[in-house]
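Supplementary notes (optional reading)

For those who missed the lab, this is the record we used. Protein: 50S ribosomal protein L35. Length: 74 residues.
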Amino acid sequence: MDSDLALVVGLVVAVFSVPAVISALSERRAPRVAAIVLIVGGGLVAWSVSQKPGGYTLGEIPDVIVRVVGRYVN
């Protein structure tokens, strides 16, 4: 898995876990699974940033997402 794909997958996983965390907290439950998924997403993002020389800037992230989606949709 290259660093661009890991960044996109990590961001998607992390974003999808946020509603689950909020839902669990609003229902006064412990967000166990949502927290684990959030940690996995954060780990993927951290790994991808550490593998790319120079890391990523916030301005590069939309281009990386489009490039990865274009690579797998086409």
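If you only remember one thing from this example: Helices lie at 3-26, 32-51, 61-73.
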